[in-house]
Amino acid sequence: xxxxxxxxxxxxxxxxxxxxxxxxxxxxxxxxxxxxxxxxxxxxxxxxxxxxxxxxxxxxxxxxxxxxxxxxxxxxxxxxxxxxxxxxxxxxxxxxxxxxxxxxxxxxxxxxxxxxxxxxxxxxxxxxxxxxxxxxxxxxxxxxxxxxxxxxxxxxxxxxxxxxxxxxxxxxxxxxxxxxxxxxxxxxxxxxxxxxxxxxxxxxxxxxxxxx
Length: 212
Ligand SMILES: *[C@@H]1O[C@H](CO)[C@@H](O)[C@H](O)[C@H]1NC(C)=O
Ligand SMILES: *[C@@H]1O[C@H](CO)[C@@H](O)[C@H](O)[C@H]1NC(C)=O
Ligand SMILES: *[C@@H]1O[C@H](CO)[C@@H](O)[C@H](O)[C@H]1NC(C)=O
Ligand SMILES: *[C@@H]1O[C@H](CO)[C@@H](O)[C@H](O)[C@H]1NC(C)=O
Ligand SMILES: *[C@@H]1O[C@H](CO)[C@@H](O)[C@H](O)[C@H]1NC(C)=O
Ligand SMILES: [Cu+2]
Prior knowledge:
Elements: H1 2-22, E1 25-39, E2 42-49, E3 58-61, E4 65-72, E5 80-83, E6 108-115, E7 121-127, E8 137-143, E9 164-167, H2 172-182, E10 191-194, E11 197-198
Parallel strand pairs: 1-4, 3-8
Antiparallel strand pairs: 1-2, 4-6, 5-7, 7-8, 9-10, 10-11
Residues 77, 102-103, 105 line the site of one 2-acetamido-2-deoxy-beta-D-glucopyranose.
């Protein structure tokens, strides 16, 4: 009996040690700013993270602490929302503007810091201020801790994430301002996108690179 109890204590101690060993602090910087892209034959200055659309993919493991320093070099107040993350005791890091924080003003920075505990999967992050999420977004992938399995049969192959989006041929903040003034509905997008790119059937899409 004593041996069984000792064995159990040992197992629990090992488990605690292994989970501590694999918890890491994953730290990134996001620079939000102007970025010129061309879609649908139309060059446009958009707001984007680190000059890419979609923005950078974040990879973490369950149990990690994620730290993201957001430097706002854009002309707009901005926040980043960690879509689908359960914020345990870090509600202020959730990101919706005017709900958990004020927008990060231009030429300022803000650090998001939270633990990713008890959750796994392919999620995403996006701006949560006016309609800037149209161009400020990216994937957030949470893999199981080392030694833990997926909550489903391990897939044979992993592909880069696929992000669906919408594209407007104009500055989305201007559209939003006009929409508020006129009281109308936000217009339909000019294109639907996969990983920031309109499909083959849209104008000027024929020579684009592959989606993934
Ligand atoms: C974004 O850009 C900044 C500044 O150039 C760089 O330090 C940072 O590593 C980049 N972040 C990611 C996630 O690529
Ligand atoms: C960013 O683009 C906006 C137009 O969308 C422009 O008004 C602003 O001056 C630009 N800012 C910088 C730093 O280039
Ligand atoms: C931007 O943020 C500043 C500081 O929080 C605030 O005073 C201002 O009203 C905000 N502007 C908009 C358009 O939300
Ligand atoms: C986040 O994880 C770290 C490291 O395990 C721990 O020290 C900290 O208390 C945790 N924070 C919260 C809010 O749970
Ligand atoms: C949109 O409206 C807000 C609030 O009235 C204003 O602060 C902002 O400068 C406007 N943005 C543009 C791009 O016109
Ligand atoms: Cu969201």
